[in-house]
């Protein structure tokens, strides 16, 4: 694909939002006129380098999703930036973000990052998305006290650890990693959503302090028994399909969750029972959806 000739782009100097999604832009240049721009979207272009943005000091949101960027650089002037999306690029390192102390949301999905680092200055960070990278260890984020949502799905992480400082975390997503044990969650008293599907977990445990959980996703693991969740009375979504549960009495563990709406239990040995749906409805009368199908009354 031939990059577009930047001369042909009409940029409005008064614009606060500029969307140049899928324009075949090969190089960031000629944007100096956008003195008032707050949101700049350059998704799905052919950009190889972050450059020539230092005059856009009003910028709050920069979206460079799906380009060909290899290095985070030349952002230090954008000190008001609150949202930065560099997903679907070819980054190997997290760097160059220290001056961006107002950042609230940071997205790095689908890059080649193998280490979590250089984030400690981002004390206002609310959302950190690092899914589909090459990360092996959860580290260097303990100081991000304001973090609300942490997404680490599709990496190579073997252990849940180093989360004790993140006491405001409400969403933790770690599906499709190499976890074998639920642990390291004892300080996350505000956790509401926990996603641990597609790992090698064998036992439900380690949730003693996570009383506020409303969504628990432990599908596609190697779990034989529903246990250690009777205290999770706020559960609304319980996803446990593709495991090894065979005893109907296990459902008693969920009886305290009076607002439970959805349970996924398909592809467990339980499902072989011809009365499968009826037995779930009787055991858990609040449930409105079993697997992908709504309950008919």
TrEMBL record:
<protein>
    <recommendedName>
        <fullName>Protein phosphatase 1 regulatory subunit 7</fullName>
    </recommendedName>
</protein>
<keyword id="KW-0539">Nucleus</keyword>
<feature type="domain" description="U2A'/phosphoprotein 32 family A C-terminal">
    <location>
        <begin position="273"/>
        <end position="291"/>
    </location>
</feature>
<comment type="similarity">
    <text>Belongs to the SDS22 family.</text>
</comment>
<dbReference type="InterPro" id="IPR001611">
    <property type="entry name" value="Leu-rich_rpt"/>
</dbReference>
<keyword id="KW-0433">Leucine-rich repeat</keyword>
<keyword id="KW-0677">Repeat</keyword>
<dbReference type="InterPro" id="IPR003591">
    <property type="entry name" value="Leu-rich_rpt_typical-subtyp"/>
</dbReference>
<dbReference type="GO" id="GO:0005634">
    <property type="term" value="C:nucleus"/>
</dbReference>
<dbReference type="InterPro" id="IPR003603">
    <property type="entry name" value="U2A'_phosphoprotein32A_C"/>
</dbReference>
<dbReference type="InterPro" id="IPR042655">
    <property type="entry name" value="LRC72"/>
</dbReference>
<dbReference type="InterPro" id="IPR032675">
    <property type="entry name" value="LRR_dom_sf"/>
</dbReference>
<dbReference type="Pfam" id="PF14580">
    <property type="entry name" value="LRR_9"/>
</dbReference>
